[in-house]
Amino acid sequence: MSKYENGELVQNIEGGREINGFGGVILGVDGGATSTVCVCLPLFSDPASLPDPLPVLGRAVAGCSNHNSVGEAAARDTLEQVIDEALTKAGSTRDAVRAVCLAVSGVNHPKDQERVLTWIRKMFTGHVKMHVYNDAVAALASGTMGKLHGCVLISGTGSISYGFTQDGQEARAGGGGPVLGDWGSGYGIAAQALTAVLRAQDGRGPKTMLTDSILRALGLSSSDELIGWTYADPAWARIAALVPVVVSCAEAGDETANKILMEAVEELAVCVKTVVRRLHLCGEDRTSPFPVVLVGGVLEANNKWDIAKEIINRIRREYPGAYPIRPKVEPAIGAALLAWYLLAREPLEGNGCTRWQISSQESTV
Amino acid sequence: MSKYENGELVQNIEGGREINGFGGVILGVDGGATSTVCVCLPLFSDPASLPDPLPVLGRAVAGCSNHNSVGEAAARDTLEQVIDEALTKAGSTRDAVRAVCLAVSGVNHPKDQERVLTWIRKMFTGHVKMHVYNDAVAALASGTMGKLHGCVLISGTGSISYGFTQDGQEARAGGGGPVLGDWGSGYGIAAQALTAVLRAQDGRGPKTMLTDSILRALGLSSSDELIGWTYADPAWARIAALVPVVVSCAEAGDETANKILMEAVEELAVCVKTVVRRLHLCGEDRTSPFPVVLVGGVLEANNKWDIAKEIINRIRREYPGAYPIRPKVEPAIGAALLAWYLLAREPLEGNGCTRWQISSQESTV
Which family is this protein grouped under (chains A, B) (predicted)? Predict the structure, then answer.
């Protein structure tokens, strides 16, 4: 049994093998465009009352595991490494794992899912329940504490909107990455800002505050150096890191920067509205409440120019039932809770999990 | 002396070392986004009357030499290899070279120019006149037969507009590559088409003929596979190769494809008009004639949907003196003619070229 003092976990007993009277641990992996996080949680007994704070037995961080970005071998190695490290930190082993949910960016097709499943099957025995999703699903679950319902909007380096209905239908919009029109993403915003600097320099576009601000941020002496800087390193996150500069310029009244952010708002709102429309998340009368989980650096509300607020306003004009959720836990925990949630819903089978039975009643968001 | 029979070069004597009574050869290199071409020409005596056809002593082709795309080492090796191969084919040697013009994509800044110059200086003695430009300059010279005047518009895998005045001022617009808003390029057109397929699939955009046409062209069975296909290989030219599919769909009346092409026309016309305005190529009354050299697969006039014609129409609405030139020689020959042209304009110096003197009078286009 884990022991808490003043709400803090002070002791794990046997790495999750005897927590809350249930054996084993669950793993959640969030593989984003820049890093991969794995958390190891104990199995919980009661779906309606999760401990607060959640007892994270182990947590590990590694590099990017998007196979589109780093290649298959590197992605597989990163996933294996981060899982083993989280288990070690939890004082646990692969044998103790009951369920794992990998939510990895770059998983866009059943073939991608199957590929990641193949990698992970080699790590665990057949008794482990394995789920592979796009990383957007972990983000949604981090807002709904494991339940797949509603819509998530992510805008970090990349952007995507993903939604699920109570009865398991799903839909996504966006998430095509830099080549395929991800204009509301951090990458998209920053690339448009860099383009605006180039256009201002060569005379195609108006002068903009972005020029001085971006050159200063990058330590460059002239716009001529921008093309060289851009292609010197193809990492998407390096471009996306310029978003705060764009927001600052917009807050200072720069028209070009404002226009770029407004276009990003429009793109992202369209992504969410498309998912809502396709899944009828708003109900027949278009006013039913549904959560919109907001995740990613672009949607953080620490700026005067609040991109997330503008997006929600646009969505609510069409679907007034949309209510924003800013997750209190990280996406990797969302993935772990989802793994647990899916395990808890399963009918009791002779699948090695016979020691425990959890109600399939759904937890409320 | 070269010998011609029925207009065909049948014999070079001593690899250019004794042609038209002048010693040595000139090299022109066109380093585009997909391949690098080097040609070796003899020195010509009379700037006003170039032989027709031009006596190409040697020609070699190699891969991409854009350091932004393939890295510095590979770019340098490619340039060295293609130059030596052209000289060998011409039966000539590095010692016979009097001038070389390298026009290479990715040269966007004096630093880029200096880097390429450093590579090439190691190949030749100090007597060789060396010039490094963006590859757009070779394209311009291929339309003007070596003279730097007017404007060139290139749209192949990438796009750029470049212009020169008679007195040596220059300006460029566009040419930022895929990340920096090169929307009129083959890459830009194709990336927007792929994006349109994704938007049609996830419900953000209208259905389009592009979906079936692109999936068929790529041998994919569903739009779900597009993201994986896109990032499986980062080569820009692979994306750009889809332009003919977009043109076919536009010709068949697809609105989305038509819109993409019209936006490309607008982007490219703006590039040219910006250069014309900055250099006052149109004269005081905005009606002076100036050439617009059109180069690249996107601007080829073999389609019903004639992108180049639409662009020229837009330019002429503002600058009626703009007249299109479709080069009769390839850009590498343009680069060689430019090397020759710059050499011919030089005042006679004690620079090892004392055997010959060419009038600095400019040739007419």
Answer: Belongs to the eukaryotic-type N-acetylglucosamine kinase family.
Q: Is residue B356 part of a domain?
A: no
pLDDT value at A94 more than 90: yes
In chain A, which residues have their Cβ closer than 8 Å to the Cβ of B270? Answer: 204
Q: What is the ipTM of this complex?
A: 0.81
Facing A195 at nearest CB: one of B176, B198, B225 = B176
* Residue B203 in contact with partner chain A when CB distance is under 8 A: yes
Is the domain of A310 the same as that of A270? Answer: yes
Q: Quick one: three-class SS letters along chain B? A: CCEEECCEEEECCHHHCCECCECCEEEEEEECCCCEEEEEEECCCCCCCCCCCCCCCEEEEECCCCHHHHCHHHHHHHHHHHHHHHHHHCCCCHHHEEEEEEEECCCCCHHHHHHHHHHHHCCCCCCCEEEEECHHHHHHHHHHCCCCCEEEEEECCCEEEEEECCCCCEEEEECCCHHHCCCCCHHHHHHHHHHHHHHHHHCCCCCCCHHHHHHHHHCCCCHHHHHHHHHHCCCHHHHHCCHHHHHHHHHCCCHHHHHHHHHHHHHHHHHHHHHHHHHCCCCCCCCCCEEEEEECHHHCCCCCCCHHHHHHHHHHHHCCCEEEECCCCCHHHHHHHHHHHHHHHCCCCCCCCCCCCCCCCCCCC
Would you call A186 an interface residue with chain B, using a CB distance cutoff of 8 Å?
Answer: no
Is the same domain home to A188 and A310? yes
Indicate if B308 and B234 belong to the same structural domain.
yes
Number of independent structural domains in chain A: 2
Q: What is the pLDDT of residues A160-199, one digit of tens each?
A: 999 999 888 999 999 898 899 899 999 999 999 999 999 9
Nearest-angstrom CA–CA distance, B339 and B27: 7
Crossing angle of helices A255-279 and A307-318, rounded to 10°: 40
Asked if B139 and B230 sit in the same domain, the reply is no
- Is B324's Cβ below 8 Å from some Cβ in A? no
d(CA B307, CA B321): 19
A280: pLDDT strictly greater than 50: yes
B140 and B196 together in one domain = no
Residue A25, strand partner residues = A42, A97
Residue A206 domain-assigned (yes or no): yes
The pLDDT tens digits of the residues spanning B272-327 come to 999 999 999 999 888 999 999 999 999 987 678 999 999 999 999 999 999 999 99
**What residues make up the domain containing B113?**
3-145+329-345
Which tokens sit at A297? 């650096």
- CA B312 to CA B301: how far, in whole Å? 12
Residue A215 included in any domain:
yes
Same domain, B126 and B202: no
- Residue B321 shares a structural domain with residue B333: no
CA nearest to B277 within chain A: A203
